[in-house]
Each structure stands twice: as C-alpha cells, then as structure tokens.
Description:
Elements: E1 5-7, E2 12-14, E3 20-21, H1 24-30, H2 43-60, H3 64-71, H4 76-89, E4 92-96, E5 100-102, E6 107-109, E7 113-117, E8 120-127, H5 134-146, E9 156-161, E10 170-174, H6 177-187
Parallel strand pairs: 8-9
Antiparallel strand pairs: 1-2, 2-3, 4-7, 5-6, 7-8, 9-10
Amino acid sequence: MAAIHFDPGTHVYTTDDGIEIPSVTQRIRRAGLLGPAAQFYTAASADRGIAIHRGCDHHDQGRDRDTAAFLTSEYGEYLTSYIRWCDVMEPVWTAIETPQYSPHYQTAGTPDRIGTIGRLPVILDLKSGGKARWHGVQLSLYALIQESDIPPRHFRRIALYLRPNGRMAQSVEYTSNYDYIQALALCA
C-alpha cells in the first residue's frame, strides 16, 4: 500500500510528492450520490459523528478512563450501542481510522475499522445516522483501496448503525456487486 498523508483539518489526502488525491467522500459527493440527504449534513451532525468516533476509538484502544468519561457524555449511548455489538461479535481490529491510498484507483480514504470477525476479514464503517444507499458504494471504495481485484472478495463490507438509545448497534452487510460497479465508475 502506498504512503498517504491526511490533513484532518482540511480533509485532504496528499502523496509524498504533494499531489492531492481524491477521497472516497469527495468521489461520492461529486457524483451526487448523497442525494437529498446532503442537506442534513450539518456542522452539528459532523461534530456528533467525530465525537462518537472518538468514543469508539477510546474503547477499541483500551483507554478505559476516556471510555468511562465518554459514556457519561451526551453521546454516551451511541458508545454503549457499539460496546454491546463488540461484546457479541468480538471483532479484532488491525487498523482503526488509518488513512489508506490506492495508486491504481487514485483514491484515498480512512475506513473506520479493518480487521476480522470470526476470522473473516471485514471493512467496517461506523454510522451515527440512518441507512443510505451510498453506504454500500462507500464500503466498496474502501475495499478497492485495499486490493485491486474486481470485485475485491477478500473483505466483508459492513456498516454499523449505532443507536442513540444504547441498544445494540445494527450491522448491515453490503454484498451487492453493483456497489462495485458504481465505485469503479466513480474512479474512472
């Protein structure tokens, strides 16, 4: 996998040579796949998502004090939802929020989690909002970044919908090859 640099402030990925690489999010947005949902992505919803990801990261990295503090925050029930799912599914993460880049597809992105569940490789994206059709395309782009086979059959593609009431998160596995067709079209 080629080296990539990510600036979280600008959400820009660049190579060692300083070349800006389109991100998974940029490709989806430019293609208009967000549809009417784009109007609901506000600064507040972005802040909520960042906070929830941070809480899940604390849990996954064994930062017990930070996890305990987050559980008492306004978004703590989302983390409870995630923890309940982890307790049942027992994932083993090999990469958490690690920027990735595919020179072959000239696309960069940061999958939320890469690892295994029951020894099967998985790419997982945490969601604090509702389901959307483009989530399958997003996960397909992340899979393409990992391997150049078409379609990449190595990874299960899962979106994990965290619940604001603390009930166990709902995992949805995206299996349609059509998601890969759309993802490849976005890279053309």
